[in-house]
Amino acid sequence: MNYQLTELQQEIRDVARRIAEEKIKPVRAQYDENGNFPWDIVKVCADADLFAVFLPEAYGGLGGGIMELVVATEELSRACGGIALCLAASALGTIPIVLFGTDEQKQKYLPDLAAGKKLAAFALTEPAAGSDASAIQTTATKDGDHYVLNGLKQWITNGGEAETYVVITMTDKSKGARGASALLVEKGMDGFDFGKKEDKMGIRGSTTRELIFRDCRVPKENLLGREGMGFMVAMRTFDMSRPGVASQALGIAQGALDEAVNYARQREQFGHPIISFQGLQFKIAEMAMRVEAARALIYAVARSIDAGDTKCAKESAMTKTFASDVAMYVTTEAVQVLGGYGYMKEYPVEKMMRDAKITQIYEGTNEIQRSVIATNLIKEYASHKQPAAKVR
Ligand SMILES: Cc1cc2nc3c(=O)[nH]c(=O)nc-3n(C[C@H](O)[C@H](O)[C@H](O)COP(=O)(O)OP(=O)(O)OC[C@H]3O[C@@H](n4cnc5c(N)ncnc54)[C@H](O)[C@@H]3O)c2cc1C
User: How far is Cα 105 from Cα 165, in angstroms, rounded to an integer?
Assistant: First the structure.
């Protein structure tokens, strides 16, 4: 389908596709096996300006937006959803600076992030605060010109590898959700350490790690937005970043569809290529339909965000939920198309199936996303004030 990509978007797609084919595919199994962080690919993406695609030109970016980010993430994820996450997770940690940073903060942080010289990360989750983000216990207490940060963040993507962290913390517990604030914390600050590195089911080319704060002194000019705005920073960020997770899921699904079709054209049983069997054709058609529907939704929402739509929580949640369910469906079906070979590590689809699973869980589980969608729908319908129509 022709999505009428701009020249810049086509260029980003082509560059990312070439990196995926030439650089990521040959090493994806190795990173999946050893769980190391793919610094060599980060360097390649940085040299190709992929970290810059969604950032303003004034801060070293290419001047694109969420659409450019989803195009790049989709193409990289087509080869490996784990390795692609080094870019998407850095974007997650960078978006709040774009949205809420002062000009000084933007000047200080964005050029290095755009150049891929430094990576960013976003830290909200804690051991007892997952879906219920308002239960976070990490505190930041004012002390003169500093905040003193104490607590532990869990499962932070790019943890330990990133230099710049946006940390959501409580500055006034008595105010509940209105007492949270977002702080920019730098690797190397006194009292900031890294804890356990997770051994995961999938996306093993991405690092997931604990952040530990023990009396970590953060200058007060590192506050993002104002005190009390922490959850607003988080929610507005997710509204813009969820199409990115969706595009990671889309890329994984497209990659699995590619593998399934190519395999089915070559594999013969009963004296015929298995793709000639209608039972498999229906399966492949279903996979392709869902992939295209996910792409159409993601691109439409990304374009709407770039056109200035700030009330996009519902649509953004829809992209992530729909595309991640598609990724899980398509990768599982791809394993089925490859039969026993699909279950073997020799073929990439078993890894794709493991990689797909996380997209239904992080940046808000799909259960929570469906609640977000329903809550927004209910509000919209309530504002129409139309009574339910009776048949008679
Ligand atoms: C690999 C990985 C990387 C991650 N990266 C980051 C990161 O970079 N930054 C960050 O801050 N966090 C990160 N996370 C955390 C992630 O966002 C959380 O895991 C996610 O939000 C869910 O929280 P939880 O795991 O504690 O599940 P829980 O909240 O404990 O949920 C458990 C189950 O209960 C369901 N549930 C909970 N509440 C409800 C409800 N009200 N209605 C219906 N169902 C409900 C959930 O949907 C889920 O199925 C990462 C997680 C993983 C696994």
Answer: 13
